[in-house]
Amino acid sequence: MIKRVGALLAGCLASMAAAAQSPEPGIDERINAAVTPVSTAISDAIFYAIPMHGTEFPLIVGWLVLAGIIFTLYFRFINFRGFTHAFRLLRGDYNDPKAPGEVTYFQGLSSAVSGTVGLGNIAGVAVAITLGGPGATFWMILAGILGMATKFVECTLGTQYRLVKPDGTISGGPMYYLSRGIGEHYPKLRGFGIVLATIFAICTMFGAIGAGGMFQANQAYAQIASISGGFFDDKAALFGIIYAILAGAVLIGGISRIGQVTAKLVPSMAALYILSALVVLAMHAADIPAALMTIIGDAFNPEGVVGGIVGTLIMGFRRAAFSNEAGLGSSAIAHSTIRTREPVSAGMVALFEPFVDTVIICTMTALVIVITGAYMQGEGVEGVRLTSMAFASVMPWFPYLLAFLVLLFAFSTTITWGYYGAKAASFLARESNAVLYGFKAFYLVMVVVGCTMQLSAIVDLADGLLFIMAIPNLIGMYLLAPVVKRELAAYMERVRNGTTR
């Protein structure tokens, strides 16, 4: 099967390379023109906004933020009280090599984080501060903390209702707790749960192709081309083929290989980025107290509050699928593969995902932008260029390092979302391995396409599909929250008694 898929992929890639070199002009414009009406309609519906203090607040954003608030209160601030136990899980205190699953706690977390850490941490934060001022940083941190509770619920459910196959591989995530969980606890709503699961799976497939594959590859190519001295200017297809082959080498191996790669890649790229931020902060150590006061003070004036909502929760998180993806349900697909007999333990580990992604990495980016004053000096400069300028004020060579980091961020997101999309396709095809490998092959072909196209309309469509995922996912989470609450109480009792399964 793998050889046949490999041959199919090689043929498709060769065809795409030939097409990309074709003298026929305007193919990307025609594709975008065909997609634009659809993407515009979906975007207008999903991001329907209500006026608020001179700006607009999309209802989908309120849907996600409200979930974070409700789950934080319903589970009695699990985002704080579960943190220490989550660290012990990551440290390996409760590892059980004989438990069903494919990856360790750390590998599961790193796989999920690899799908969330990306351009939102670099460009999205800069957009937030540009729109809302330094006070946006405060609201960004708050959003990350609330997202921890949402992530806990969805990853617990993903593991609770996962499917363990005879060969030991795992299929889990919202598709399974929407169909199996709702059907088990609400028999009259079984059909409704299957409909929710189907909608979620379809949106995951197309969202993965657009936002996880095409967009990430496109941005990786743009960054490398910008520092290649013109070498890659007319070689988008070549770059795309190399990128797809590397991604395919990891993706074909499934979550086990993804976990092995991301367990090394994610800590390395995060540590490199954080170390660079710490160097900048150390060079401006005397300005740190004033910067913190500016952030806190600006957060509570009207411009800071509204700007924080617009900049962080809309522009910043939308550009990277809400950065930590809390409420979208995607991370539950990765966390459900953890080796454990305790579903709640997977949810506990998931607390670290928004914490690392938003509270640490996004906050470090924000502090660098604020403390260097780049947000005041960079008139007309925004997004990743503003972040790059802030770092370059201390380290002139940083734009080259940033290009490398963007490549790593994009690559890690590509392989993780390829796995998410393949699992969604497999669910729709009743766990067909042929469909799973076929989707992976098609996904890698579209990665090459992404490097050769203008993606504005397609990315808008993919963004809309990603946000649609939050609607069926959160409906299911609300219905099944009492199940998680019972499981949490029983699990913590077993932890106290030393009788975990």
TrEMBL record:
Q: Name one Pfam family in it.
A: Na_Ala_symp
Q: Which family does it belong to?
A: Belongs to the alanine or glycine:cation symporter (AGCS) (TC 2.A.25) family.
The residue ranges crossing the membrane are 57-78, 192-216, 236-258, 270-292, 304-321, 355-377, 397-420, 441-459, 465-484
Keywords from the UniProt entry: Cell inner membrane, Cell membrane, Membrane, Signal, Symport, Transmembrane, Transmembrane helix, Transport
Could you confirm whether the keyword Glycosyltransferase appears in this record? no
Q: Extract the signal peptide range.
A: 1-20
Xref: InterPro entries: Na/Ala_symport (IPR001463)
Q: According to its record, how does it sit in the membrane?
A: Multi-pass membrane protein
This chain belongs to which protein, by name?
Answer: Alanine:cation symporter family protein
Superkingdom of the source species: Bacteria
Q: Where is this chain's protein located in or outside the cell?
A: Cell inner membrane; Cell membrane
